[in-house]
Structures
1.
Amino acid sequence: MGGGHSASRSHRLFLFSPGPTGQRHWPERYPDCGRQAQSPLDIQTASVQYDPSLPPIEPEGYRDPGSGPLTLTNNGHTVQLSLPGNLHLHGLPSLYSAVQLHFHWGNSQAVGSEHRVDGQSFPAELHVVHFNSEKYANLTEATEQPDGLAVLAVFLEVDPVEENPAYSHILDHLDSILYAEQEAPVAAFSVRELLPAHLGHFYRYRGSLTTPPCYQSVLWTVFRQPARISAAQLEKLQKSLYSTKDGKAPSNPLVSNVRLPQSLNQRLVLASFPVGASGYSAGEVVAIIAAVLLGSLGVFLAGWVLAKRRR
């Protein structure tokens, strides 16, 4: 999760580079980045556990975030939109209030989602960041707390033709924030339209920020259903922005702001829906098949013993 609480500005430009300050070296400067509950994950559905008690996500205020403009920012490692505090999430262990949303994307050769499902990546990923307003006064106070943050993750896939008008509210303003630290006002719009239509199907796990300082304070909700944007909209995201300030040479394109998948390390990933076509995970299917085979073998042996006695 990129965002306001990440690396200092002097290091933002190098967060995702392959060099000595790139993500493989984050733990040297930010120890939490090397801990055992990091994000993102490549979610393996064979080990996901179905939890029918997980309630659907219920956004409050998302359709009407107020009349004041929102602020769109190029912060050097992502494009971020501020969100007013009257946007809340229900359906989680506490009440969470929205702070900002931002994107992760690749380039024309590389996929850009941070989370994956069974190895599958998507062209981009949206994160909507919230803090636990029931327990903490603000984002700064909540960021380091184990139950401090909740992030909604939405995969973005490409529609060959049709634009997504909700995403146009953001992407049409990228020309105004081409360079790092530039800001632009965006007229308020229904943030709910950025999310999938179906909010009842998701993966849930505890993890971390996906940029330094990588605090392990995030309750992740990764929606099963992607949102769709057009190829032209994706290209705008991939090719418009720079990670450097205006006038600084050379101008570095802002692309591939993606952290690699992290180890699961004994964590449990839950799903609010039955995983797999049969309603069972792959692991459960294997167990069922084994049980059936063992049962069949038992019946066969019992029949064989009985037949032998009759002789």
2.
Amino acid sequence: MTILHLPPHPHPTLPDLWCLFNGEQLYLQDDALPGAPGQAHTAVRYIGHNDAANLYSAELIGPPPANWQAVSLRQAIYTLPADMSALLARAAQLHRFARSHRFCGVCASPLQPNRHDLGRQCPSCGELYYPRLSPAMMVLITRGRELLLARSPHFAPGMYSALAGFVEAGESLEACVHREAFEEVGVRIHNLRYAMSQSWPFPHSLMLAFVADYLDGDITPQAGEIEHAAWFDIDQLPGLPATRSIAHHLIHQHIHQLRQAD
């Protein structure tokens, strides 16, 4: 499990790393986060720390040093050590919130940061804003040694994953799991149990993963959402999502539990 500490001040004995943004991109130095900003910067924010380093974020002013590389957030997450993923996700989400919430959506007045938390408040009408989190469920449907996996049209060729979808307003997580399973592949499930969660900053998701047993129904892929879905034996799986994703951990954890039970 990724360790993420969120105290108000940096750890006094850990080194500092910097997540330096240029729009939606950030900079790496020799495939690592820089240990110092290197030049003029603005919008400095302390993000938190793991067991190895404090992380700060900021925006560079002007061009970066010649030996720095501009990469996407996704590239950075898959390049840097796994224990940096949660800190990077937090940095990106707070950076996006600051850029997209400069003015009040009700009366258009400039927003002011709250002193006691990460929110922003309108001094004119009092409207409050907080960094956006979008809860999304994922469910791995099982039938004995078989897993129901599906692929979306935007997946890499040959890759399949567990089902996923965003929670609707007024909907519980459990209701969302049952609804999405039926909408996306036409099956009903039971024996739903929580497995794990992951912050995923694309763009601001909080993934909550479950395992469920198949109850009934024939696989019927949802048009426009699911390109193909099928049952796969755990010894004959298709291509799966990358190792940093919650889908990868969910699938492999369940397979490990099945093998231990044999």
3.
Amino acid sequence: MPPARKRTRGYDSARIRAAVLAQFDHVRAGVLTLTPEQFASPTRLGDWTVRELAAHLTMALDGLVRYLGEPEPQRAKPELALLDWPFATVTAAERVDEDTRAVAASTDPAELYARTEAGIAAALPGAPDERLVPTRFGTMRLGDFLVTRTVELIVHTDDLNDATGLGVPYERQALAACARLLADALAVKAPGGSVEVRVPPYAVVQCVAGPRHTRGTPPNVVETDPLTWIRLATGRTTWAAALAAAQVHASGERADLSGVLPVLG
């Protein structure tokens, strides 16, 4: 696992909390319009159907409700920093798949969303950002864990839109936090200063070992929109496909990120 950088980007707690709740509400509204035929449709996530994807979206917050319902771990500090989280997710892929299938098979989607919505409304208010929560990957600050929820919700909202054509909105603050965390994770995975990656209007990071640029226009620049960046960072699209579709603009001999993508396993 790549080490987290010494300095981690700050996130506004109130905005993150509001964004997480708003994005979940957007998803819930969309999912509740789906027909049985749509729930049985395939997704780009292996052999998951839309029903499994919809169930997994509730798990992004249902797990938080469960964590907040448990005693706070008696530790002096978190085990997992925010920038370690993107690299830890791959370690739980099999367990997540098993849990998702079990939830999807056992509970009606409308009931799942109603239960999760009620649970988070009861558990989250008043819980301080510094509270430690026992996640799958180790204890985290609640404030940091909530930032990771924007990644789960935005990435899988995009999966849902791809599979159904629903057009579920992307909450601006959730989209921003997701893009920023994945951009910062790229800078951890490929440390350096020879390439500047721009995801306007949300993030700019420098990465990739080599000569560091200090003045004027950088010679190696990659620029793309937030959703394309998120799809690249999570393996929903490839570097070659994004370039061919003119969704990425890359200039400079080092401006090729194919060897360091995706970021999230």
4.
Amino acid sequence: MNAQTGPDLSYSFARDKGIVVLDRSDEAVQLGVRNGADPFALSEARRVLRLPFTLQAMDGSAFERALTEHYAREGVTGDEAEAALDRDGDLASLVEGIPQTADLLDGDDDAPVIRLINGLIYEAVNRKASDVHIEPHEDQMSVRYRIDGVLQEVLTPSRRLAAPLISRIKVMARLDIAEKRMPQDGRISLSIGGRSIDVRVSTLPSRYGERVTMRLLDTRNALLGLDELGMDGATLARFREVLAQPNGITLVTGPTGSGKTTTLYSALSVLNNGERNVMTLEDPIEYGLEGISQTQMNHKVGLTFAATLRAILRHDPDVVMVGEIRDLETAKVAFEFAATGRPVLSTVHTNSAAGAIQRLRDMGIEPYVLAATLRAVIAQRLVRKLCDHCKRPHEPNPDELAMFGLQASDVQAFYRPTGCMACGNSGYAGRLGVYELITVDSDLRELIRNDGSEDQIQDQAFAQHDTLFTNAARYIVSGQTSVEEVLRVCRRDEER
């Protein structure tokens, strides 16, 4: 399909009249015409395009695919979005500027809705949001950003905006705009201020229509060095020692959104020294890594973690990263590969490092295999950092001091969030990493081999090292976060 420049039909006209541009040259245009299309609309199409045309009949599904393919090429640009916000003031002004029509895409063009989408994504990137949630409710629509791990509502426009807004997003993500009963996943690639941003789009049917979640993937936020992760000096030194070992499995564990992928990528950047064949299996691939072979899982065709892991073993990898160990089959293949004398990195969804060992035993991995192959488990959380402009000191009470094992002489003040313009009235700006690391030494290996309980493993592993809870306490003492934030992210019983 040629991408010649020239006048084009508006998306709303093409969709409603059943006419779409398939190909274009300087002399003629090829139009796809949906079965049952309005024949009188062809004269209007010729007036707009100002070129003679040929016609190709298309059934409904073929027309929808061509429509999505043609109009998905209109990306979001930072210049357009910034200009729209500069001209209209803010997101609320963009919404107010949208005409009060029954169908917002019935006009001559889709500029108001496109400007709103541009503004939403541009503002989300500006505010360092990780996700944009668009949810229709009974009378209105909710637009929320996830900033520093917490959702913040930014717009509550009329529900009439939901259908055209979501329809347009689906077109940009190359999804089937006619399918509203099933969940769909797609991607939008865009550039803002010279930065490449990938937007993962997911749709889901709900009571009042489809809801959309857009995850913003900015490579600059993911590719951090180990020194930039926020580990304390002792944990960082121990983690480097683990990565220097020639074999065994290293696991990263924690809830969704706790930074596991960033930690894995940072570890891979250390291992990828140009002399190793580093291969990853991911679902999905979130960020492209230079010099590393990355494979996207596709469960619809049987491309699962276990099946693909077996296949890549024939490609002579030196280091393998498995996005997640979800089942016994994947776990067995990963441990078998690690037993051959090469390192494996992966994630497991558990609340603590000791819990990951118990989870693998519950899956069916034999204790002696675990003891022989497991090298380390690192659990992590992200706590919000107090805004330096508005945080306020307060005197800690005896219960707070006792909770963190502190004396009144150990700390002068704790700090609380207040909220100001600089932090969007949240009281927080940015996040800090909190970690606990279990390294499998001879004593712990014997305990795992003898099927020791999770509590016994926890007590043995952290007899001389910090748990998540005690590691987070250093940020409270230094005034970087609040007691409430640590309690939100780290449970007290993880301290045991």
